[in-house]
Amino acid sequence: MPETATRPLRLVVMGTGPFAVPMFRSLVASAHEIVAVVTRPDRVTRGRRPPPNPMRLAAEQAGMSVLAPPDINAADVCEQLAALQPDLLVVCDYGQILAADTLAVARYGGINLHGSLLPRHRGAAPVQWAILEGDATTGVCVIRMSPRLDAGAVIVSREQPIAVDDTAATLEERLAADGGEQVLAAIDAVAAADGGDVGTRQDPQLVTRAPRLTKACGLVDWARPADELERRRRALDPWPRLATFFAPEGAAPQRLVLVDVTVGDPPAADTEAGTVLAVDRAEPGSVTVACGQGTTLVIRQLVPEGRRLMTAGEYLRGSSLREGCRLGFDAGGPS
Questions:
Q1: Both 101 and 230 in a single domain?
Q2: 216-to-4, 251, 299 alpha-carbon distances in Å
Q3: How large is the average pLDDT for residues 287-291?
Q4: Can you give the pTM of this predicted structure?
């Protein structure tokens, strides 16, 4: 069992998504006492309850019961948490903002594990936005919590390079693995301060935003340069994924999820963005599309609407897509 540099603390751990699970397991293996695990309630859609979220599963595997209040800031929930006499709230990938009264139920307030080097990429999707913005590096940090989103002092941080082939899934997995060690170090720092100030204040001039993604974020704008679209493909994997449309003449547009794309050679002539410049039907095949700023994107794998993953060559053998066609919601065959 890992030792802590200070006395063991009584912790309330709050999390929902997969990013919180490695941190939680590090805390379970530590000398600290987890007095409660809190997660978001499961959403019921069309009368069906989805599978348990990753944090709930991890807690149940550790033999711990889980609280799932609809509103973490409700008075009765705060009373329930206060009765546990926690020293510290440890939060990661939870999904609700804690009010000042909620943070006050713990002796030392709360800390939050965040998937970027704050103040860069404040918000719900820091890993995705680090790739979208073309950052060379990102990291994790642990901050003192305040009622303002991701605005507290940074207690500890660790940098992580972003590989040229990283997707949001692969990068998030590495960052989450770093989180446990950083949270344990932050807990030691908070306990050693015994209620005093700890951490470095964020520079408000360096703040950038990382808002929650929507399905619409995945729709290709072919007027953007190809390198940006290639980053977007990686940043939106596994959700919402990068997609465009092809409408054969006289048919409804078909959604195409782009799974494997690369930046191609510059086009020989200025061509309208979204125009198919070349197709290669021999396996594994490819589709080269004109993009903004005189660039091209090469599609090598895709998922046509309602079908399985295909190479470009497989798709082309059963499709009317050819040179001169255009991709996009209102685009179709050659004009």
A1: no
A2: 45, 23, 20
A3: 98
A4: 0.93
Per-residue pLDDT, averaged over 36-44, amounts to 90
206, 223, 241 - which closes a domain = 206
Query: Do the beta carbons of residue 283 and residue 300 sit within 8 Å?
Result: no
Dump pLDDT digits (tens) for 231-257: 999 999 999 999 999 998 878 899 999
Asked if the structure places residue 335 within a domain, the reply is no
Do 167 and 259 lie in one domain? The reply is no
Q: Which is it for the CA torsion 53, 54, 57, 58, positive or negative?
A: negative
Q: Which of 206, 230, 265 is the last residue before a domain boundary?
A: 206
Q: What one-letter code names the amino acid at 26?
A: S
Q: How many domains does the chain have?
A: 2
Per the DSSP assignment, residues forming a β-bridge with 122 are 209
335 pLDDT tier (thresholds 50, 70, 90):
very low
| pLDDT tens-digit readout, 205-227 | 999 999 999 999 999 999 999 99
CA-to-CA distance for 251 and 163, rounded, in angstroms? 40
What domain range is 48 assigned to?
A: 10-206
C-beta of residue 183 within 8 angstroms of C-beta of residue 20: no
- For the chain, how many residues are written? 335
Model confidence band, residue 42 (pLDDT cutoffs 50, 70, 90): confident
